[in-house]
Amino acid sequence: MAHDRRFRFGVHTSDAAPGTAWTDAAKRIEGLGFSTLFLRDHFDTQLGPIAAMTAAACATDTLNVGCLVLDNDYRHPLVLAKELATIDHLSNGRVEVGLGAGWMAPDYEQSGMPFDPPGVRVSRMEEAVTIIKALLAGQAVNHAGVHYTITGHTAYPVPATTPPIMIAGGGPRMLRIAAREADIIGLNPARKSNAAWEDQNLPDATADATDRKIGWIRDAAGARYADIELSIVVPFVIVTDDRDGTASAIAGSLPPDADTELNAEGVLASPHVLIGSVDQIADTLRERRDRWDLSYYVFNDDSIDAVAPIVEQLAGT
């Protein structure tokens, strides 16, 4: 069924104080009209995603829970599918299954897990996606692959729904896999390195780069493109009446890059940036939906108050 491209919004967060802070935050996010609460999946200063997803789902009534994204290398696909099916079963169908191949080298160094070359990690994830989709669909699975073997297993519990699969990526191979397999595709800037969060790839966050990515997705998805929901994380949100001046100041503060030079117009055009009044930002989101079919926006938790009026205006439209 073709996706209706109605707007929905998520919050990307990772930590909370002990006690009720986490569930209180989930209830507030739900009350503000956000669709989904997402965590990350790393070994640094953040909550464990499976437990936190469960707690948030149990504390709310309509809020979806997920992870951007679960690192395939940390969990066997049968084990992960069972955990996610359980959360979906108990929450009456409120899980979104974000899957990735892993990228953050310090996680692997600290855990002692082998950090295989990108091609191996992506192939392993691709095989895991096939297994997880079958298990979440309630199928009996016999699988003998390059990376995984599963013999005569029937998933239990059966999810309340068939949870949507989200795959995020910035390069052509990941986005083509997502186009073939995912219900939701997240557009990311391809990373310059695997060293840390701080490494930014400005040339791959531009409007032109996004045009290329949508092209890869369209070509690989074929007829199923119309069914796919397109999503993006927007880490930079500034609500201001001085849109042009703010963009100019940001452009002037960016470090020089050999591959691109972002002026104020380029900053405003990036789909990973939102600057302007509430009405200007709402108009920008409509324009980007018209251009790229982007309808599912995820914001970092420090932007909740800034974007709440935008969510109120656009969610479900």
Describe this structure in words.
The chain has helices at about 20-30, 50-60, 75-90, 105-110, 120-135, 170-180, 205-220, 245-255, 265-270, 280-290, 305-315; strands spanning about 10, 35-40, 65, 70, 95-100, 140-145, 150-155, 165-170, 185, 230-235, 235-240, 275, 295-300. By secondary structure, the protein is an alpha/beta fold. The chain has a single domain (about 10-235, about 275-315), classed as Alpha-Beta Barrel (TIM Barrel). The strands form 3 sheets. The chain has an 8-stranded parallel barrel, surrounded by 7 helices. Strands 6-7 form a two-stranded antiparallel sheet. Strands 11-12 form a two-stranded parallel ribbon. A hairpin with a 4-residue loop joins strand 6 (about 140-145) and strand 7. It is globular. The model has no long low-confidence stretch (mean pLDDT about 95).
